[in-house]
């Protein structure tokens, strides 16, 4: 990079003074050039990938123009169609795990308990989820204070009479995750709960549970039904972004977050 051309005075009063002025002049130009380069660089304020012409957003929200296009081509066998009638909102800001669990349980053809609030109708709620067997694993008070780990989610679901397989996020690569979700989010009798770190999605918050509802092959993304409905709409997330988010470490268990696959 050429910063500037400096011409030495023809008849300087002092050679040392002229040299000092030349050094100051060149230094000022160099500093200016560095500042301009920093502002023009893609690394200033955004990643090089985001600055590239073909960069795609990491997430696409349900009510955006692109989100509407994605939901218009949602497969007829996507889990979304079974989950949307039972999609629950968490009743407290730390009950995301419980809300995610009952969303899936109510969508399954299994025996359901009766909550006195809705008697005589049988339905899983965020109260009756905590059966005596579940409380042996984790209490409502503990969930209220610190949420639920991946292994606790699998164990509590098993106590409800379903199969729950826990998968650590750091044991999957992107291809493995894609293959798993492409099949599991179709109408094969399985449902998927995801424990992920919100910051990887560009969202406010830390560790979170929600339900995965569909896979879109064209965009290579999955639909998350966020049980914190008061905070975020459902969102489409690329396989790459989801993979990074579920491979983060849960500070309670000191293990990777990940997925729980639920079936009858």
Number of helices: 10
Which word captures the global form? globular
**CATH 2nd-level architecture of the largest domain:** Alpha-Beta Complex
How do the helices and strands follow one another from N- to C-terminus? Answer: HHEHHHHHHEHEEEEHEEE
Query: What is the CA–CA distance across the termini?
Result: 66 Å
Proportion of residues in helical segments? 25-40%
Largest beta-sheet details? 7 strands, antiparallel
CATH topology of the largest domain: Cathepsin B, Chain A
Unreliable stretches, pLDDT < 50, 5 or more residues?
Answer: 1-9, 33-57
Record the strand order, biggest sheet: 1-6-5-4-3-9-2
What percentage of amino acids are in beta strands? 15-25%
Radius of gyration: 27 Å
Number of strands: 9
- According to CATH, the homologous superfamily of the largest domain is Phytochelatin synthase, N-terminal domain
Total discrete domains: 2
CATH class of the largest domain: Alpha Beta
The average pLDDT value, as a whole number, equals 86
Assembly type of the shown chains?
single chain
Assign the structural class, choosing from mainly alpha, mainly beta, alpha/beta, alpha+beta, or little secondary structure: alpha+beta
């Amino acid at each position: 990079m050429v910063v500037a051309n400096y011409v030495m005075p023809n008849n300087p009063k002092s050679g040392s003074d002229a040299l000092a002025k030349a050094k100051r002049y060149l230094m000022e130009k160099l500093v200016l050039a560095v500042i301009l380069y920093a502002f023009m660089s893609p690394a200033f304020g955004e990643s090089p990938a985001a600055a590239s012409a073909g960069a795609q957003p990491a997430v696409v929200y349900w009510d955006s123009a692109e989100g509407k296009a994605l939901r218009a081509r949602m497969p007829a066998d996507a889990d979304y169609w079974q989950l949307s009638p039972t999609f629950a909102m968490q009743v407290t800001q730390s009950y995301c795990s419980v809300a995610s669990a009952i969303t899936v349980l109510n969508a399954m053809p299994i025996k359901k308990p009766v909550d006195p609030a809705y008697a005589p109708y049988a339905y899983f709620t965020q109260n009756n989820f905590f059966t005596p067997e579940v409380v042996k694993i984790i209490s409502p008070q503990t969930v209220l204070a610190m949420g639920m780990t991946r292994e606790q989610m699998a164990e509590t679901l098993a106590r409800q009479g379903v199969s729950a397989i826990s998968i650590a996020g750091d044991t999957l690569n992107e291809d493995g995750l894609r293959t798993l979700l492409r099949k599991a989010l179709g109408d094969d009798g399985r449902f998927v709960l995801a424990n992920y770190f919100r910051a990887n999605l560009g969202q406010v918050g830390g560790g979170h549970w929600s339900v995965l509802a569909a896979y879109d092959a064209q965009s290579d993304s999955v639909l998350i039904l966020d049980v914190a409905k008061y905070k975020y709409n459902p969102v489409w997330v690329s396989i790459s972004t989801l993979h990074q988010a579920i491979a983060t470490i849960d500070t309670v268990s000191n293990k990777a977050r990940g997925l729980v696959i639920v079936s009858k």
